[in-house]
Design a protein that fits this description.
The protein is mainly alpha-helical. The protein is 83% helix and 3% strand.
Length: 126
Amino acid sequence: MKGFEFVFLAIGSVLGAFLRYKITESPLLFNTLPVNVLIVNILGAFILGIFIIISEQWNLDGRYSLLAAVGFCGSLTTMSSFALDSSNLLDNQHYAALAVNIITNIGLSIGALIAGKSIMSAVVNG
């Protein structure tokens, strides 16, 4: 049983890491604000919100949580890159961009998770 759990986690992790790599391989900047990490964090939170509702509605086995929530979303989103981007903005004294980076990554990720849950709840509950 543990072998299958590892396989689900590994598949999700590889897919999430690959998508994060593809999205972040070419840096996107809005003035001094790095947006690649923001994109992956919002996208991952949105997908997680959708998955939460699907998992509850369909009573999914815990292995699917390892695949989608822990593996895929965990590898797609990136707290360490968010922290590094924030630290670089601080080091370069871009205080306004630092504040925007923190607020948008946290606020929009929470908003995306709630939106994903809300949209999927509306779809499932018709």
